[in-house]
Amino acid sequence: MRRLLVLTLLAVGVRAQASGNVFRYVEKDGTIVYTNVPPAGKNAKKMQGSFSPAPAASEPVTAKASTPADFEPHINTASHRYRIPSSLVRAVMHAESNFNRHAVSPKGASGLMQLMPQTASEMFVKDIFDARENIEGGTRYLRVLANLFRGDMVKMIAAYNAGPEAVRKYGGSVPPYAETQAYVRKVVQLYFQYKEREQGAAPGLREAKIDVDDDAADRPDEQSARD
Prior knowledge:
Blueprint: E1 7-10, E2 22-26, E3 32-35, E4 45-47, E5 52-53, H1 72-82, H2 86-97, E6 103-104, H3 117-122, H4 131-148, H5 153-162, H6 164-169, H7 178-199, H8 222-226
Parallel strand pairs: 1-3, 5-6
Antiparallel strand pairs: 2-3, 2-4
């Protein structure tokens, strides 16, 4: 049976400790622990980078000319596996973390695609700060939302931010939360910017619909199949 590992963040004050070091170690039960406090008596590894705040939904953004090269294979693999446009994966990642693998929100969402620990566990993510796993989990969650909302991208994006229940609560509309509405506008804007950049085309007819694939979210990735 595949064992899921639980992420634990210790003593991380996101805003106050944004420039602190990041240490990683594994407990005897397999729990992966990240902390900004050097752990005593642990075989901890000091990681490159540091915890830093995730960008606010209201911050203006423009698609980058190129995304970090080491993320590209993971984006392309996950988008192909779960049939989610790579431009949407890039847009969500950009809005969520600005491509910072160590981004942490005040609510505890973490990594490139800002997964909450519970969501990460449900998407079979063992190490939430591992770029491949985080991208894989975030894209898989987008597929779950695509199936849930029949490919309606606006509802998917709103649910990624506010949760599926919030979208249902308001009859399938974007919830009237300032953060969520700003987030949806940002991600949709980034999606079309990345789509146009990838296609090398001038802005044209804009369509925001994703095919429904009820089996894609249940399709395990190659690494998961080996664990």
